[in-house]
Structure formats: structure tokens, C-alpha cells
Write a structure and sequence with these properties.
Length: 718
């Protein structure tokens, strides 16, 4: 069972006041387009629900998404999808009773309104299932009701967090969108099941029935035929079924149909006919040939079901999946589908509206939406192209299905918007864009996006054309990041993050008395250094997980040794606020005295760290841990802050040590740092001591410790 105190509250007093940004709207729009695209490709509902949960979790770190549905017979709730929740969690939540004490999800269904619980350990809405919150460390939980077509609550979409937190408007919009998407998927699943039932039971249900003679003249219809089409028996008897043709199918369609019917004796397919009132009727038709004993055709039997509602709903889904609901333009899904299908050389131009986030903030989202609609109309008017897409909240794209010089097209757009101002609700707005363009037959969207980024980096209203010789570096960097990002995930999962130890020599006793713990990844019999994986780990938020594994494994090693040892602590570790409890737990587990442990923090943290981080470091000091400033002198140095923290060690940055025997400036800086440390009674460590000449100067300056390959290379202890 997890201690509820391990939940750390966020400083979110004003989170409800933070407006939704354009990027956040883009993220919600991307989720909607992804799921609708999966529906358009007829993915299984369970796969869609798991994907939706994963996408929602990606927008709220340290959370788990879940979908619960109410059983229509027992009225109890069960987990439908929660890919990040263990099976034990599914079982614990099974049979949940909606009600005032039934947690966030039970209340969402019971009250048919959103529930935002910040502290599950004290909120009365969790009274009946408090044990679940404690057992699984669910500190807060936000739940949105999933409603049917009658607006009745039938389930819930929830985000549970391992931190006490309140939702921002972005999170509420995210929950609302996800719950609505679930209702769409459920409705689509119902309609799809209905369509499958029609195809299996055409000959046994109350479908429309038509029997014709060997000349294909109608001789019999049933009551369902009259009900569905509006034609009476008297109006159709003796006539050819082409009588109610919609003319939506050409001659080749019917010719192919008859060829298959005569050859195989049956045919099934979708046909659009017309009703008696002239409206269209989409039918799933099953036609069979009836023969006599001499195998001669005597009749044709056709049964059909009205699938107009299903077709209409599918058409709406396809429209939502491939069209932008605001501007009516094709969307990103449509663009990617077109690019993936084509193998010819094409030209793609991306346009990003400058200052659109400011326009939304200053004038409101209604004005921003109207501006986007007006921009879409103008682009269709001034550009001789039908392939115009809105791919993000403030981004459009133009696709030419051939190689096209992008410069004159961009000149036309620039000139028009330079000469014209747009007036929206009596507000005059000047519009400009950043442009990125690429031509080719592969990676067109990626290359255009890289070009757009280059133009943004250069300033507003700029244009950049993708150049394979200069712009592929960024693409290679991105691909390298993906490789190392996957490698980190794999290493964490398989416990392949390992500690290496580099000795630190005491220049007074001439012995190695301390070790610095260094993280390495063991991958395919190779040792990967932080030079390769540190930045990807930071960008993907995995540094704390690496630190935890290094702490655990280094403690396991050092419990059998007597030396002191230092562990690198990042700003990400301090932001997660887990160190005090985790270090205490591991120190007790491995029986290591805290005075042996040195926590190395970067100079930037000590100089500009948040007050909460400084407080954590001082608390750790009070518990016996010692502190070291790593790479001192690499950034800006706040000497007063160092004294406030009661730092035990200063590690002089390697760039001053490695050439200290040759570079006078490095010598003077090192001398000044050593003098400051001595007067402040802080012990000093020189990094990158790599030869005898450097070590000699280190000793002359009275620096207490030396660390580097001259004395010790990083190695793995048994």
C-alpha cells in the first residue's frame, strides 16, 4: 500500500485561470483527428479506446486515463479501457456503484456532470472507495460523463494523477473532447454491428423483398418494401426495378452486377435508389437467381435493407476525419493520406499565421476563428489550386501535384495580405505568414515542416525552401533523438541503466577516498555514455527515472564498500520533489549512512533555482547528506547562494582544468575559485586531471581533491 503522503501537491492556485493556448488546441485537435482517422479505417473499438487513453495521458504527465461504462442491467460500472492501469486496478474498480461516495467516475455518472477531485484522500466524493485511492496512490482524479444521444450519463472518461492537482481549462477541454469521442465511437460501433447484422440476416428479417420474373419484371413485393420505399404494390408490379433507379450508378456498374449474378447465382452490394417522394435510399441488396428443375432461370429474388442512416453517419465520420470543421478545408489526415498514396514529385507549402496566439488572447477565440475562416476564403480565391488544407490551429498548406516553384506563389500571398487588411467584427487585423516549402516524392511533409521551422527561426514573414544539403542535419538529429529515446525506455524496462564509478583522490592523503557515480546504458553489449542519451532523456522527462535506478544500484554496490560517493542530481529530480523520501528509503534498505552520500547539483540550480528546490536541498543537508556544486564556473556563479546552501564541495569545471598548465586565463580563474573555496571553508575538487603537469599545479594551488583519468577511469564495480 502506498503512503498517501507520497502524493506531492502542485502549486496550482491559479491553474484555472490559465487560458488555453493555440498549441494546446492543436494537441486536442490532433487527438480528435487521430481517433476519427482510426474510425474511418474501421479499427476495432478497443484499439481506439486504448489509443485515446494513451494520447490523453501524453498531455498530462504522471497520470493514467480510464474509460468506465455502466452496465445497463446491473447499473454497476466497470473498466472498459485503461491501458496504463494494472489488472489489479481493473479488478478493484469493477462493480463500482454510482453515487455520492463512488469516486469521481461514480459521481460523474450519478450526477451527470463533470467531477474534478483534487485530493482523493479527503474528498467526500471518494468516501466509499478511499481504499482504492490509497492502494494505487491516486492523489487526484478528474472525470467527465460519457453521454448517449438522450444526454444520459452512461459512463465516464477520467484522468487520475499521482499528484494533487486541479485541472486547467485545457484539461477540462481535453476531458470533454475525449468523452465526446468515446460516445461517437460507441455509436459507430452500434451502427457497424447493425450493418453486420443486416448482411447476415437479410433473408430472415423484415427487409424489403422484390421478386421478378425471368424478364426481370416485378411480380411480388412485401410490406416492408412499401414501408421503406413509399411505393405501393400496384405502382411497381409489372415494371423493371430500374423504375426506382437514382441514376447514381453508371452502365458499367449494372453490367458488372449482372455478370456476377448470372455466373455465381447471387450478388450482394450497395445500391442507391430513390423513394416515391424522390429522396435517395441507400440499400444493402442481396440478389439470388431462382431456377427450375431444368436449371432454367424463372425468377430473381432481391432482399434489401435501408442503410441510409448508417451511410449518412459514416459520411459524417469521414467528413470529420478528413475535413476541418471550422473552415471546410481538407485537414491534416487528408493531406497525409494524399501524400502517402502519391509517388510522383509534388510541392508542398506550409503557411503559419504570425502572432495568431496573440490575436486569440487579445480579441478572443471567436475573432480568431472568424479570421481563420476569412484566410481560408482568401487563399481559395487568390491561389490557383484546389488542394488547400488546414493542418493545425494556425497553419495551412498548399499542395501542388507536380514540381512547382514556390517563390512566385508566396509572393502572391505576401503581396495580397500586405496590401489588404482584414476587418473582423469592426477589428482591423494585419495578417502575415511564415512559409516553409519542399518539393519531391518522399518525406514531403517532414521536409516542409523543417523548412517552416527554419523560416520561424529567421524571424516573422520569412520563407525557407527545404535544401537537402543543409536541412537534413536537423532531420538526422531528430531521428537520432528517437533512437536514443527508445533506447532509454528499453534500458529502464530491462534495468540496463548501470552505475560506473570514478575515483576522487585526496591530495593530502594521496589516496582515493571518494567516488563519483556516473550513469551508463548497457545496450547490445555496448556501453553508452550520457553524451548520447542525456539530452533525449531530459526532453522526454525520463531523467528522474534514470536517477532513481542509479541511486538504487549504486547504493547496492556501496553497501559493501567504505568510501564516500557522489550522485548527480538534476533540476528535473528536484522538480519532482521525490528525493527526500526515495533517498531515505534506499539508505535504510542498504544500511548506508547519509553522511557518506554527496549530492552533486549543477551550478545553474544553485544560482537560479526555485525556492522550493533550495528548500529541498537544505532539508537534505539537515538529514546528513552533503552537497557539491558540479561544473562550477561553467555558467554564472552566485557566491552568496552557495554560502546560503552550506555547500560542502566545489567541483571546478573541466574547461579550466584541462589546459591549466598552458593557459594563463584558466590558471587565474582556477586560482580565484580555490581562494574563494578556502576562505569559505568549502573543499575544492578539480575535474579532468589528465596528466602529471596539471596535477602538479592543482597541488600548488592547494586544491583538496583531484578527479580525472590520471588517477581513475570510470569503471563498473562487482
Amino acid at each position: 500500500m502506498t503512503d498517501p503522503k507520497s502524493c506531492q501537491p502542485l502549486n496550482d492556485a491559479s491553474v484555472s485561470e490559465v487560458p488555453i493556448t493555440s498549441n494546446e488546441y492543436n494537441q486536442i485537435l490532433a487527438i480528435q483527428e487521430t481517433v476519427l482517422g482510426m474510425m474511418a479505417y474501421k479499427n476495432d473499438a478497443n484499439i481506439i479506446f486504448n489509443k485515446l487513453c494513451n494520447l490523453a495521458e501524453s498531455l498530462l504527465p504522471n497520470s493514467a486515463a480510464s474509460i468506465m461504462m455502466q452496465d445497463p442491467h446491473t447499473h454497476l460500472m466497470n473498466v472498459l479501457a485503461a491501458p496504463s492501469v494494472p489488472q489489479a486496478g481493473h479488478e478493484a474498480l469493477g462493480g463500482l456503484t454510482p453515487g455520492p461516495g463512488g469516486g469521481s467516475c461514480g459521481n460523474a455518472v450519478f450526477r451527470n456532470e463533470p467531477q474534478f477531485v483534487t485530493d482523493t484522500f479527503s474528498d467526500e466524493r471518494w468516501a466509499n472507495i478511499r481504499h482504492i485511492a490509497v492502494d494505487f496512490n491516486l492523489c487526484s482524479c478528474w472525470s467527465m460523463p460519457i453521454r448517449n444521444s438522450d444526454q444520459e450519463a452512461i459512463g465516464s472518461f477520467a484522468l487520475s494523477s499521482f499528484e494533487h492537482r486541479s485541472p486547467a481549462p485545457f484539461h477540462k477541454k481535453l476531458l470533454e473532447t475525449c468523452a465526446y469521442i468515446v460516445s461517437i465511437v460507441l455509436k459507430n460501433q452500434q451502427l457497424s454491428n447493425r450493418s453486420a447484422l443486416y448482411s447476415r440476416a437479410l433473408m430472415h428479417a423484415k427487409e424489403g423483398m422484390v421478386i421478378t420474373d425471368h424478364e426481370n419484371k416485378i411480380v411480388e413485393v412485401n410490406q416492408a418494401f412499401e414501408d421503406i420505399t413509399g411505393f405501393t404494390e400496384a405502382e411497381v408490379i409489372g415494371k423493371n426495378p430500374s423504375f426506382f433507379s437514382s441514376r447514381k450508378h453508371d452502365k458499367d456498374f449494372y453490367q458488372t452486377m449482372w455478370q456476377k449474378l448470372i455466373k455465381k447465382g447471387k450478388w450482394s452490394g450497395e445500391i442507391t435508389n430513390k423513394k416515391a417522394d424522390g429522396s435517395l435510399l441507400t440499400e444493402w441488396v442481396n440478389i439470388s437467381v431462382i431456377t427450375n428443375e431444368q436449371n432454367e432461370i424463372t425468377n430473381y429474388l432481391a432482399s434489401f435493407a435501408d442503410i441510409s442512416e448508417i451511410k449518412e453517419y459514416q459520411d459524417k465520420i469521414n467528413y470529420m476525419a478528413y475535413y476541418d470543421s471550422l473552415t471546410g478545408l481538407l485537414n491534416k489526415n487528408s493531406l497525409e493520406r494524399t501524400l502517402n498514396k502519391s509517388q510522383q514529385k509534388q510541392t508542398l507549402i506550409l503557411l503559419n499565421v504570425n502572432n495568431f496566439s496573440y490575436i486569440n488572447t487579445a480579441y478572443g477565440y471567436e475573432i480568431g476563428d472568424k479570421l481563420l475562416i476569412e484566410i481560408a476564403k482568401i487563399l481559395k480565391k487568390i491561389i490557383d489550386i484546389v488542394h488547400i488544407y488546414r493542418i493545425n490551429a494556425d497553419e495551412f498548406s498548399l499542395l501542388y501535384k507536380k514540381h512547382q516553384d514556390a517563390s512566385p506563389i508566396i509572393d502572391i500571398i505576401r503581396k495580397y495580405f500586405y496590401d489588404q487588411t482584414l476587418t473582423i467584427n469592426n477589428i482591423t487585423i494585419n495578417v502575415s505568414f511564415n512559409y516553409g516549402a519542399a518539393s519531391g516524392d518522399v518525406n514531403l511533409f517532414k521536409n516542409s515542416a523543417l523548412a517552416l521551422k527554419q523560416s520561424k527561426d529567421a524571424g516573422k514573414n520569412r520563407f525557407h525552401l527545404y535544401d537537402i544539403n543543409t536541412d537534413t542535419i536537423d532531420e538526422n538529429t531528430r531521428e537520432e533523438f528517437i533512437v536514443y529515446n527508445n533506447m532509454i525506455h528499453d534500458a529502464l524496462e530491462k534495468s540496463n541503466i548501470i552505475p560506473y564509478f570514478q575515483g576522487i583522490r585526496d591530495n593530502r592523503s594521496k589516496k582515493i577516498t571518494k567516488y563519483e557515480v556516473l550513469a551508463r546504458i548497457k545496450h547490445q553489449n555496448k556501453i553508452i555514455t550520457p553524451f548520447h542519451f542525456l539530452e533525449p532523456a531530459k526532453l522526454s522527462g525520463m531523467l528522474p527515472e534514470i536517477t532513481k535506478m542509479i541511486i538504487d544500484k549504486s547504493f547496492a554496490v556501496m553497501q559493501h564498500r567504505s568510501e564516500d560517493f557522489s550522485i548527480n542530481i538534476t533540476e528535473d529530480d528536484l522538480s519532482r520533489n521525490y528525493l527526500s523520501d526515495f533517498l531515505a528509503k534506499k539508505a535504510e534498505q542498504y544500511q548506508i549512512n547519509t553522511s557518506r552520500i554527496i549530492l552533486e547539483i549543477l551550478e545553474g540550480v544553485s544560482s537560479a533555482g526555485k525556492s522550493s528546490q533550495i528548500q529541498q536541498l537544505n532539508d537534505l543537508k539537515r538529514h546528513g547528506y552533503r552537497l557539491a556544486i558540479d561544473d562550477f564556473g561553467a555558467e554564472y556563479s552566485n557566491f552568496e547562494r552557495i554560502l546560503d546552501l552550506e555547500i560542502d564541495f566545489l567541483k571546478i569545471d573541466a574547461k579550466y582544468i584541462k589546459n591549466i598548465d598552458k593557459d594563463e586565463k584558466s590558471y587565474e580563474i582556477t586560482k580565484a575559485i580555490a581562494y574563494f573555496a578556502r576562505n569559505a571553508k568549502v573543499e575544492c575538487i578539480a575535474e579532468f586531471v589528465h596528466n602529471e603537469a596539471v596535477q602538479k599545479i592543482i597541488e600548488e594551488l592547494g586544491i583538496d581533491y583531484s578527479q580525472g583519468y590520471f588517477f581513475s577511469e570510470p569503471k563498473e564495480f562487482d
